[in-house]
Amino acid sequence: MNPLGTYRPGHSPLHRLSPGIKLVGLAAAILAISLAVRSLPALGIAALAVAALYALAGIGPVTAWRQFRPTLWILVFIFAFQWIFTDARRALLVCGILALSVLLAAVVTLTTRTTDMLDSLTRALHPLRRFGVRTDLIAIALALTIRTIPLMVEIAGQVDEARRARGLRPGPRILVAPIVLGALRTADGFAESLSARGLD
Prior knowledge:
The chain is about 75% helix and about 0% strand. The chain is an all-alpha fold.
């Protein structure tokens, strides 16, 4: 139920595609959407393209929704902020682009093993080793980043569920402070695990 979800085995064209190509394609697609989508019709066309990509990967709408759902309240907050300070059209475009970016990232992680992505990135960074760059540490940092994103979304979901269970209204003190504390506890856990494995 994370936006960057667990790998789902399959034999679709996207599953068979090289992890490196998928990562480059993901970056290019997000950049293209961010630059090209300037109207609601363009946003609709981009949404249809992302839906076609999910169909090509053999990922149904239920799975796609489960990946996207934890980010919904964040998009609602951003939409309200944009509407207040700009207008409804701008709010729709900004949230639409963010939503499509999340879905694109999800389809990549659903069709690619994390280890394969890291191996591909490590190979791409290999030439930097001759300059003394620790590519293994970069790979660890990327692995932690990939793992941390769904953890942060999970923490945010737990905080929001606790708020609803107590009947509290959403607000900075109710939502932001517990999320920040949860993020710090997670970071401490990562630091202790790395130290226990001899990594400073």
